[in-house]
Structures are given as structure tokens and as C-alpha cells.
Design brief:
Helix content: 40-55%
Distance between the termini: 60 Å
Largest sheet: 8 strands, mixed
Strand content: 15-25%
Radius of gyration: 37 Å
Number of strands: 18
Length: 637
């Protein structure tokens, strides 16, 4: 979002709650900005985060602050003269509601990266109206509610009660809307009921009595309308084109033959030749045409090259955004005629149960006129269409169209970045499961792998070996079951390992190896390693797999640690301490924890229950005095 929105929030929060509260909110959200620039882009989540922070500070709800922020923006933009633009849309509040999309279109030239929502007025009556809001942002429905309430109050002198009738994909938090599987963002749709005194509008615009002179007028032949609007089309209830102006037929081209063998645009389905550009976010259906009769429609006449015609005959393409973008690029590169943008109103004619699209082509200049294969005398004789093209006054919809295409590409890039971030996180998680994070960061910085080699004066090494008496044969089914058992047990042990207290070094076969005191130094490594060993035995008993036991051995001493290997690098420990810890495990008993004398002395001082086992023959060391670790200090009370 643009900084102008956040400027309004900052100004009125400081004005109504004070500088101290504003600074607390900034600190709570971790916002590094103390001043916002009008035309700078900021994250969409910042405003909802500020609302949540202010809610925690003041005790008011987050939703009330989002409504307050919406009101603030309307008060603030009067400094830029935008209140005059709104007042110029019409005499009544409903006039503004019908024109709000056009206001956003005009503002997009000042704020080209603005992701404006789309709004359509669907119902009006004496007591108010129903408004449909569409956006790719979630969590801003309350903000929009505040804007409507302030505009009605400040500019039209109306008190509006706003109720949300229903919503789709709208969640609190203000983050970007959920991503669809096919790419792009899901559309947030909110339907509002606006209750206000709308009698003046209804009397003037809807329930206006027909002038006596109009009653004497006879019915108008549809041919007259098509002559007045040579680009108009008549659409029946089945969405077929039953009539078209002379220039529309010529623009489509009599030489065109589509995949259905039709050589004319007449009696074909309108969606075969036209793409609905506005209103946004709705299917191009008969019910929607009738539903949005008060809204200006914008259609794009799709004109196929010979190559595209051949492709359509082979396999008719779906007119998706990506397909149309490729087709547009191809037309530009081959010099083929451009598509024609048509803007106008859909008017329902009761006598023939059809809708006529009264429209004119949108053309910026003579170059575009030529590229579309049109001439000045093709344009409406009435109005200023020809003069506007000559003078270059026409609405810059082509520029807007370019903006839309760039926005679509930007959305695709944003989706790709989201996926890339997700893949990076997954890659980091995988890397950190193989190598400790501090070591991995040193390697990423370009340091020599030998620089990861580090000596530790004292760490505690744990070895735990699972024994499964129920799977002792070499049968393949027993082997598969044994793997499943190991996975269950080791996954449970993984949940007990919390860095930096303890670090899982590796699993080899049925052996689970952990260290405390490396790679992060830990003065309480003996205690933390012992707690983990006790928890491992307890967890295995909790899992309660028949025939499965574990032998655990611990020893404390110096080690050297470092990353070994390039293809599948591993963080390995070396030294006599590792060998002795392994011997403690191999010479132990099921579901028992065997520790060396040094560990036993340390643990007894802090209340652990340790019992002597006596002398044990240890390979390479001879007789060693060992002990059983029975329980932690809490069991001794």
C-alpha cells in the first residue's frame, strides 16, 4: 500500500491518542519507519498490525481501529483535493457508489502500483443500497466500512449503518489473500448492506414520473439503435449475439471463420469473441449483466490471426488472462490488427427480452485507430468521439490496459516469490537438520569447510540403541515393519531434542546419537543430556511397542567436531569420548541408562538418583566403574 494511507493513520492516532501511544504501537509491530512517504510502497500487513497493537494498548477492538483508520483516510485525503473529485461524481451518495470504480481508475495514473478494490452497486431502495466489494487483500473490509461511513457523513451529510451480509476469503490480519493452486490470488468478496435515507435519489433517478411528451413516443426499432451505435451488439438470454452494428460486423471481419464454421459474428456466443474487462472479478453471464445494469461495462473484441485461427480449429483455447497476453504479444510482433476495447452500458429491452450494449470504442490517438483497422468515419457521428481522437483527449484506457498486464505479471512474480520463499525455508530446514545452523551460516559465507572444525573441552555424548525382539528374521515384511518401528521411535525422540541444549548428531541403523555442549557451548551439558536420556526411556514406554527396548550410554569428555563430506555433508564428532559413550551403550541393559563415574558424581550433587553397577569390561579401556541413572532430582523428594 502507498504511504499516503499510513500517513493518515499516523496523523490522526497522534492527534487523538498522543505521541506516546503511537510510539508504543510502532515498537510493538517492529516498524522501523518513523515517517511515511506518500508515494512509497509499504507492506499490506503493517496497517492491520498497527490496529492490533493499538487494540492491545488501549483495550479497544482491532476491528474498531480498522474502521477508525478508514475514516482517517477520508479526512486526510481532503488535503490533496480528492474530496472535490468525490463531490463531482453526483448529487447523491448513490451516484458516488456507482462511480467509485471510475475514481480508482483515474487515481491509478497518479498511483500506478495501487491495488484498488472493485465495487458494484447491486441493489437500491428508499432505505439504502447493497454494495459488493472485491479485492485481492484480505482483512480490509472494516477499513472500507470506515471510508464509506466518513464519506457519507462528511461529504453527503448522511448517517450510514453498514452491515456485512456475507463474505468470502476475507480473514482478519490484512495479509495477502490466499494463493490459488493455479497461481494468482483468490478474490475477497464482501457484500454490504448500507442503510441510509435514499428517498431523494429514488425519486429523482429511479421512481421519476415519465414526462407526458414521452408517453406519446412509439417503440423504437432496434435497427435505429444499431445505426446510432454502430459498434453496439444485442445479446439474448442464451448469451448469443442476435444483432450487431455495421461497424462491429466489419471490425470482426467477414472473412473470419471460427472453429464452429461461423463466418459472421451474428448468432454466435458472445464469450467466443469478447472478453469482459469490467466489472472485474465476475463471470460474463446473463444474470450478472442484469444484476450489474447500473455499472459501466468494458468489453474487449478478440481478433485472431490466421495462425491463431488454425490453432483454434485444432483445439479451441480458453480465453484466460495468460492466453490473451500471449495472443496480444503475438499480434504486436506480427503487426496484426489489435483488439478493440469497447465501453458502454448494458440496457435491457423488455419487448425482445434482450440486452443491448450501447458502446463506443476506446481509442487514444490516430495511431491506435490505424492499428485497430478503423477510420474516423467508423466512429459515432454524435458525441465527440472523432474530435477526441483527433485531439488525443480520449480516456487513457490503453495505458490502463498496459498497467493491467504489468500488474498481472507482477502478481505472477509475487506468487513465484512466495513459492521461492517457501522452497528456501524447506531447503533451510533440510540443511539445518544435517548441519547445525551456526556452522551452515559459516559455510554459506564462503568460509573453508576446515574452518568449521572446532574442539570442545567438555561435552556429554549420548548413544541410544533400539532393540526389537519381534522382528529378528530377515523376511522382507519383518524388515519393513522394523523400519516403521524405528521411524516411530526416532520421530518421538526428535520431538524431545531442543537446540541449543542438545543437538542430534545422527542415526545409524538402530543407533540414535545426541550431544550436549556442542556446537553451542552449554555449561549444564551433563544435566541436559541426562534429562534427555530419561525422557527417551519414558517416551519409549509411553509409545508401548511390544518387544521394543532401548539401551542408552553417556560419557563426558573432550571432542573435536566438524563437517565431513561434500555430497551429503554431516556434522560429526571425533575423539575417545565418543568411543566410550558408545561402549556404555553396547554394554548396557534394556531400558537402562549406563553412565561413567564422572557423570555419576556430577548428577549426585544435584539430586539425581544414580546407583553403582560395579566394574564393567570395556573394550580398549579394561575395567571401568559404571553407574545406572535411575531418575531425576524430582523423584528424590
Amino acid at each position: 500500500m502507498y504511504g499516503m494511507l499510513l500517513e493518515s493513520v499516523q496523523h490522526f492516532v497522534q492527534l487523538e491518542y498522543g505521541e506516546g501511544v503511537w510510539k508504543q504501537a510502532l515498537q510493538a509491530t517492529g516498524c522501523k519507519y518513523s515517517v511515511f512517504n506518500t508515494h512509497q510502497i509499504y507492506g499490506d500487513s503493517l496497517m492491520p498490525d498497527l490496529a492490533a497493537a493499538l487494540s492491545a494498548i488501549t483495550g479497544k477492538s482491532t476491528e474498531s481501529f480498522m474502521v477508525f483508520f478508514g475514516r482517517c483516510f477520508v479526512r486526510f485525503f481532503s488535503n490533496f483535493g480528492y474530496d472535490k473529485m468525490i463531490k463531482a461524481t453526483g448529487r447523491f451518495f448513490c451516484d458516488f457508489l456507482q462511480s467509485v470504480d471510475n475514481i480508482h481508475l483515474q487515481m491509478r495514473f497518479t498511483y500506478p502500483k495501487m491495488k484498488s478494490p472493485s465495487m458494484q452497486l447491486t441493489e437500491v431502495d428508499d432505505k439504502g443500497a447493497v454494495l459488493v466489494y472485491r479485492s485481492t487483500r484480505s482483512g480490509f473490509s472494516k477499513y472500507f466500512k470506515g471510508q464509506l461511513m466518513e464519506i457519507a457523513d462528511a461529504l453527503y451529510g448522511l448517517k450510514v449503518k453498514i452491515t456485512i451480509l456475507d463474505r468470502q476469503n476475507d480473514t482478519s490480519g490484512g495479509t495477502t489473500g490466499p494463493i490459488a493452486i493455479q497461481g494468482g490470488l483468490k478474490t475477497v468478496i464482501v457484500r454490504y448492506r448500507l442503510d441510509f435515507d435514499n428517498r431523494d435519489y429514488m425519486e429523482t433517478k429511479v421512481n421519476k414520473t415519465i414526462h407526458p411528451s414521452h408517453k406519446k413516443l412509439g417503440p423504437v426499432d432496434g435497427k435505429v439503435l444499431l445505426e446510432m451505435f454502430p459498434f453496439a451488439i444485442i445479446i439474448d438470454e442464451s448469451m448469443q449475439i442476435t444483432g450487431a452494428g455495421e461497424k462491429m460486423v466489419e471490425a470482426w471481419g467477414l472473412e473470419n471463420v471460427n472453429s464452429k464454421g461461423q463466418s459472421t459474428i451474428l448468432y454466435s456466443t458472445v464469450t467466443d469473441h469478447f472478453r469482459l474487462r469490467r466489472p472485474k472479478g465476475i463471470p460474463f453471464t446473463w444474470s450478472n449483466i442484469l444484476h450489474f445494469h447500473t455499472v459501466l461495462f468494458e468489453l474487449e473484441l478478440i481478433r485472431l490471426t490466421q495462425e491463431e485461427k488454425d490453432e483454434e480449429k485444432a483445439e479451441p483455447p480458453a480465453l484466460s488472462t495468460e492466453t490473451l497476453a500471449v495472443m496480444a504479444d503475438r499480434r504486436e510482433s506480427t503487426g496484426a490488427m489489435k483488439n478493440i476495447l469497447l465501453k458502454g452500458q448494458m440496457r435491457f429491452i423488455t419487448e425482445i427480452n434482450s440486452v443491448i450494449f450501447l458502446c463506443s470504442p476506446i481509442i487514444n490517438n490516430l495511431d491506435e485507430l490505424h492499428n485497430m483497422g478503423l477510420f474516423l468515419n467508423d466512429l459515432n457521428a454524435h458525441g465527440l468521439s472523432r474530435e477526441m481522437v483527433m485531439a488525443g483527449w480520449q480516456h487513457f484506457s490503453r495505458l490502463e490496459y498496459t498497467f493491467e498486464r504489468e500488474e498481472e505479471r507482477s502478481d505472477e512474480l509475487e506468487t513465484s516469490l512466495h513459492l521461492a520463499d517457501s522452497w528456501k525455508r524447506q531447503g533451510d530446514d533440510l540443511l539445518y537438520s544435517m548441519i547445525p545452523k551456526p556452522v551452515a551460516e559459516r559455510l554459506r559465507a564462503g568460509l573453508n569447510p576446515l574452518s568449521t572444525c572446532q574442539s570442545f573441552e567438555q561435552v556429554t555424548v549420548i548413544f541410544g540403541e533400539l532393540h526389537d525382539e519381534s522382528h529378528s528374521s530377515s523376511d522382507i515384511r519383518d524388515a519393513m515393519s522394523a523400519v516403521s518401528t524405528l521411524n516411530t521411535c526416532f520421530s518421538a525422540f526428535d520431538e524431545l531434542v531442543h537446540s541449543p541444549m542438545v543437538y542430534k548428531v545422527e542415526t545409524v541403523g538402530q543407533v540414535y546419537m545426541v550431544v550436549s555442549g556442542a556446537p553451542d557451548m552449554n555449561p549444564l551439558h551433563v544435566q541436559h543430556a541426562s534429562d534427555l536420556a530419561l525422557n527417551m526411556v519414558a517416551k519409549l514406554k509411553e509409545i508401548n511397542i511390544p518387544g521394543v527396548t532401548i539401551k542408552i550410554g553417556l560419557h563426558t569428555g573432550p571432542v573435536v567436531a566438524g563437517v565431513v563430506g561434500l555430497k551429503v555433508p554431516r556434522y560429526c564428532l571425533f575423539g575417545d569420548t565418543v568411543n566410550i559413550a558408545s561402549r556404555m551403550e553396547s554394554s548396557g541393559l534394556p531400558n537402562k541408562i549406563q553412565v561413567t563415574e564422572y557423570i555419576a558424581q556430577k548428577l549426585r550433587k544435584i539430586g539425581y538418583i544414580v546407583e553403582s553397577r560395579g566394574l564393567v569390561q570395556v573394550k580398549g579401556k579394561g575395567d571401568m566403574k559404571t553407574f545406572w541413572l535411575e531418575s531425576g532430582p524430582s523423584k528424590n523428594k
